[in-house]
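Job type: complex structure
Entries:
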Amino acid sequence: MSGPVRTGLVLVGARGSVASTVIHGLEALRSGTPPLGLVTELPDFSSTPWVDLADIHAVGWDIAGDSHRTAEDLRRTGVLPADLVELGASLRDRLELNIAPGIPEPEDAGIADSSARDRLELPSVEIIEALRGDLRSWREREGFQRMVVVNLATAERQRELPPGWDELEANPLELVVSAPADFPRSLLYGIAAVAEGLPFINFTPAMSTDVPAFSGWADRSGVPLLGNDGKTGETLMKSALAPMFRDRALRVLAWEGYNMLGNRDGAALEDPSRKSRKVANKDGVLQGILGSEETHSGVSIDFVPSLHDWKTAMDFIHFEGFLGAKMQLQFTWQGSDSALAAPLILDLARIALLASERGESGPLRAAAPFFKNPAGTDEHDLHRQMSEFRAWVRR
Amino acid sequence: MSGPVRTGLVLVGARGSVASTVIHGLEALRSGTPPLGLVTELPDFSSTPWVDLADIHAVGWDIAGDSHRTAEDLRRTGVLPADLVELGASLRDRLELNIAPGIPEPEDAGIADSSARDRLELPSVEIIEALRGDLRSWREREGFQRMVVVNLATAERQRELPPGWDELEANPLELVVSAPADFPRSLLYGIAAVAEGLPFINFTPAMSTDVPAFSGWADRSGVPLLGNDGKTGETLMKSALAPMFRDRALRVLAWEGYNMLGNRDGAALEDPSRKSRKVANKDGVLQGILGSEETHSGVSIDFVPSLHDWKTAMDFIHFEGFLGAKMQLQFTWQGSDSALAAPLILDLARIALLASERGESGPLRAAAPFFKNPAGTDEHDLHRQMSEFRAWVRR
Amino acid sequence: MSGPVRTGLVLVGARGSVASTVIHGLEALRSGTPPLGLVTELPDFSSTPWVDLADIHAVGWDIAGDSHRTAEDLRRTGVLPADLVELGASLRDRLELNIAPGIPEPEDAGIADSSARDRLELPSVEIIEALRGDLRSWREREGFQRMVVVNLATAERQRELPPGWDELEANPLELVVSAPADFPRSLLYGIAAVAEGLPFINFTPAMSTDVPAFSGWADRSGVPLLGNDGKTGETLMKSALAPMFRDRALRVLAWEGYNMLGNRDGAALEDPSRKSRKVANKDGVLQGILGSEETHSGVSIDFVPSLHDWKTAMDFIHFEGFLGAKMQLQFTWQGSDSALAAPLILDLARIALLASERGESGPLRAAAPFFKNPAGTDEHDLHRQMSEFRAWVRR
Amino acid sequence: MSGPVRTGLVLVGARGSVASTVIHGLEALRSGTPPLGLVTELPDFSSTPWVDLADIHAVGWDIAGDSHRTAEDLRRTGVLPADLVELGASLRDRLELNIAPGIPEPEDAGIADSSARDRLELPSVEIIEALRGDLRSWREREGFQRMVVVNLATAERQRELPPGWDELEANPLELVVSAPADFPRSLLYGIAAVAEGLPFINFTPAMSTDVPAFSGWADRSGVPLLGNDGKTGETLMKSALAPMFRDRALRVLAWEGYNMLGNRDGAALEDPSRKSRKVANKDGVLQGILGSEETHSGVSIDFVPSLHDWKTAMDFIHFEGFLGAKMQLQFTWQGSDSALAAPLILDLARIALLASERGESGPLRAAAPFFKNPAGTDEHDLHRQMSEFRAWVRR
């Protein structure tokens, strides 16, 4: 693609920490900050026709909040440099004009803006209509030639879908009408995106590509789907390390992972119905790689407010080697949740748009290295995922 | 190869901890102990015509010691199960009959048996002759149809080679005569092996495949060389983890590795001239994968007697991500040095013999996953090494 | 006290890991093994008239099991040396003759011996009678001149006591009759001990000295009570480290403790009603020392079978210093639960008997360094507890 | 003492990180920042007549640098809050007017200001005169009613003193003339302080109170000496934890400490002649508490530039308990070197002035909790040191 192509990055959770880091990061990258953390900027991919980062402009939904306050919080916790936060003020002013009301979880209605609470009153089909309206309005107002939607919302509660959703051939727009329900928010956003022909990236532990009716419909609609649940920290480590045990024929007896975090996500995950899928995703990686029922694995996530954005994982791995010798590995990973996720959002937007241009649709298996629970594949080995990703890019 | 083929596993350091673990391990595997830690026993390789473990019989050299005492030490430190040590008594008796005097380092002459000290008096050419004589005598006495030599000696001191050795076309047997010197022991054993047409595996931090005259000569002689310096613990971790940082575009600012061990190797490594190559090998892996001068890397090895065989590594990794966010990973690895190394010795013997049968000669690049400083390649990424190894096996 | 004084050590849980380690330990100490882990053997206390370890003989109750199998398990997991287990066979034979049926938790009835199940059928008052009968019978049969009872049972479930138990003046023997209930096992054993005039040591997370009717009665009866819940690992660390933060005016923001263990206690603690008190005890130490509501503290205990007796605790401590600087400390503690507890049982028996001889009765505050939830004091600072203990011994 | 008493805090290394943190900290404390990290502000000491922090004003020596740049560095590395650095600009301007040239180590002459290099040319006796002149000039210009000198210089090189210095009765002012030498800088500053009747606090690994001629003379001169080598991180941990092992009769087999830091001190400590004393001090604590030759202890300090002020210590402790069970503890401590040291400087200034008022002179044993190598005592147990300190304060 030649010449600047104005590109809309539509963020669900546009005032959250990750979104704020993405937005400030785009500004910093334009000013020459080295693109650390951006996979698409690796030398290997220097000749790939990724969308130019300077062409990406963020808009999106949120249920409440204030992007200035988020930025200030990120400055205080050492994620965003002070001068960048100062520099970004007008950028955030502009963003605020481009934020539409999101769809809160029922238990979050109390903290949501009234406009967001209003949407909660609507039947699902009208919610989807409203979201589509937002997308069309951004496209028009901002002159976007391309758009991509990314779900960065806080972990949502588990929900059962009514019958019909497990059929690949079904049409979600019809299912929503024929069997109304309290649908997962991720699905509502995803349906709106696909209905508008826009790639949808699910970066949170939520339903989307794993819903057959949704993924089949996206496939038929020519829209790529990327997901699920960004792989940024402890699970990234698991997917890098577990292959070592497998390839050395060392039997992993136990892998206990203790996660601590203090941000909004951490607070939401105190709710078991919101935590369960995330824990399942984190755990699935080990099963996927070690392929065994022998491993006693545990995953806990605790809310430790003083850590703010600095996610800390302490893992204990007990393993058995030659002649039954018991050995162990422990690790402690400490990283800024937002600084780890933000560059991947830009990577995934580029990947989704490249897939779109190449005419690919449905779950994008090549994006597996970026997700805890990758769509379209059971491969969890980070290195095999990267090999496949490299091959896909080069194609 | 069909039918039992009696195979000699010739160990340099035949009374050491690793050798002892190999020997008892062979016995345990014959009795049905699960083959944990053995790469060649992975399901992936189930149809590869590896030599049958039941056909492998150990002989070798050592400068002193008593294999019964080694076994007892390994029992006390929890590496070998008590019943296996009991069971192995007659095996060790037989091994003792098949141990020839090794070549000590000058500073070890005091602890060496008189027969080993005698060999130290000989000119290098005669030492090589003596070693070749040992090999021929084992072949005959034990009826070996195939043999392979593995260097498991304690880390040896650094030495400069006289001129001539950096030429691929030179003949080591002639160089040893024309320019006598205090040659590295690893080279003397290697020359003896190659002269007898036997594959040579260098599992220690020592000179061998990196000596052009030696590797060129092995290549012309049709003999495979595998090395160098077994990758069993901290460096294995580095080669599994560093690719993750590289592939996520995270800049590794510092990687400090603190190793503690309490066995004979640990004691020898207190001597700086013996430690330097090992440290260099451990450090080279990071440079090889991260390919950067940006990383401040440190490697220390400390002798902590109470740990005996339980090598403990504490690593601290400082890295930088998006917008300069500083993050960190720490790990502690604790494993039995002998239990980690022993199965790899069996793997490498099988690999060397397969290469030999396939007519391959010289440095065997495919064996890279097993070595800190792999011969014939600069690839240190464990996962890429394993891909290449898998492809080689399948060929 | 001069001359040998045959002393009965009555263990609740006499076939458990701790009891087995105590019993084998006594044997080893008699043969000259250095008394590591025994506080009463510190040079500071060399002139204290402790009971001679050679005079201590173990008897006790258990609901099931086989002390030979326990010993074998402890050998396999590396807690007891193989030769000691062999040596101890006749000792265990003799112990088996001196084990009376214990009182199982209802959910353990299935795994209990029939004799133990039978006791479960009895009204509480008769259970107490039966236990007293056991004590009298041991005294007679074994010729004990002194006895002390130690509760080493697996963590028991939380129970509410009927009215009356919170009165210091009440008589437990009457309360048991007047208001029958499903009483905590710890209380039944304790009542039996006190009724027989024997000091009672509660080493588990269970009700005893914290029940006013029980402790008041023991006090009036001239019987010392020691407890509660032995302080052997992570909590010991907390009580040693938290004073440092307090004394340096460093604000502890969060102290998250993750405990893993794989023994019978670990299995029982999977039951929330059995875990709650233990977690409360572990947590109370921080509150007691840091005296603040500012600390976010968490305690988890996970059952990780492969660890067996090797309790592993990973703690993360986040703290704030000068000008709000956020700092952190992490630690990993790995110790054999049984090897840590066993010597303290011997220490406590000696302390209880010394207190008894000195005519002290009721909760023994001086024993605080040994307990997570010390009776008779709110002091949790290990160092202050030790100062007081030293002063008490010297008195 | 009633009414404001203008107090001069004379810092050697006045432009360094610790000094800068002290100076900004004083400002923040005046504005109501909670006094975290300040021992003298603990509730226990609320009635002690400490000098009012508002009365303390910093002046001092340095060999080069710029306090604005130091402040900026501390802001970037997250030690000083951005607004405080902004607020402190005029404070630093004023400080710069009150900085006199320090005495560089010979190897630092190249980076020193010309005024500092000039002093290096002078004979020691004239250096001392110049330093005394600085002290008198500050007293006069700033109207100080009390003053105290604190050595915060970078670790200095080891030096041998000429004969005479090991005599308590000698007079340093005479020794400097009679046997000229390249004297340790710490001693020159200390002599100047004592000659002016000012308490001297040695916070670095340097010679001072351990020089008999110097400490005897200070004692006779009625001047308190406090030192040596501030105990802020890893060694603080050792002095808090080692008593636990001692009091539980657990034998510490090995205690290996790996320290990483990236500040100016870290760079200086790459020089072995500057590192040796610090390592000795860190190590002495274990010997002092465990009192045993059985412990294999190691201390390493590595310069890891990316860590800047965030000193990171990884310690591995191997210990033996009941029946020889081998257990282990690991910890990782991460703290800002400056934020840990700065409040202690204020504490020590207050303590020195209180001692002075009380008429105490010579090495002040009560200050032991603050030092790695405390003057006047062999007690290294933090808790016993604190008990003694508390008693001294209350006196």
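Summary: Chain B is about 40% helix and 20% strand. Residues 175 and 372 of chain B are 28 Å apart (CA to CA).
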